[in-house]
């Protein structure tokens, strides 16, 4: 690919900013930086930035033109068809909410809530005329895959404002290092097979939240706190994921947290937390 050719000219580039078309699916591009041996050995994926048009985004999400709707890779899902706007927002590490000067404050807040309901793990920067407060840390030098400071959730999950894609966050007490293979197996089931491992019956009432059976994960970020005081980071773009040591040795979390962004996740976080907990307990 073109980037591999560029990397043959070592020492020439400090940073590569890859701008896709307005209808591109970032989920098809990002995994290349993990699975391509040539790219993985020479550069790293710094982060995904999505530019959102505050004036038109609600229309793009709710009333897309035919060319703005995608079925690629999602033919088996029974839910509503996704728009490219949904896909681009769901994969983002940073969202630039532009043209804020063209909408009244109450509409801007509605847009922000809608974007957050789709991707609650992304940092949002509100701008007008595409003027960002700074380049470093906003568009460049994100290190979105090195640390997960954006996982500072004050509550579990988010209101399901958008019917197509939502964000949920599950928590769990710190685990032992021996449980990491079980976490890996749970992730393979969720990401590769689109199957949430069932948890044993707990004698719950009939109105208990249903077990999600028809879902797909677009992004997954997580922190695995270990009982020895260290922690690991989980990153996933669709079915490609990795669990690795954190480069940040300070501010170790005291509990695990996994954030999932995708379609068909359900209205309750309970089945996800129960599945994760019981899977680790059964495996142990």
Automatic annotation (TrEMBL):
The keyword Chaperone applies. The keyword Zinc applies. GO terms for molecular function: GTP binding; hydrolase activity. Keywords: Chaperone, GTP-binding, Hydrolase, Nucleotide-binding, Zinc. It catalyses: GTP + H2O = GDP + phosphate + H(+). Residues 1-124 form the CobW/HypB/UreG nucleotide-binding domain. Residues 216-266 form the CobW C-terminal domain. GO terms for cellular component: cytoplasm. It comes from the Eukaryota. Belongs to the SIMIBI class G3E GTPase family. ZNG1 subfamily. This is CobW domain protein.
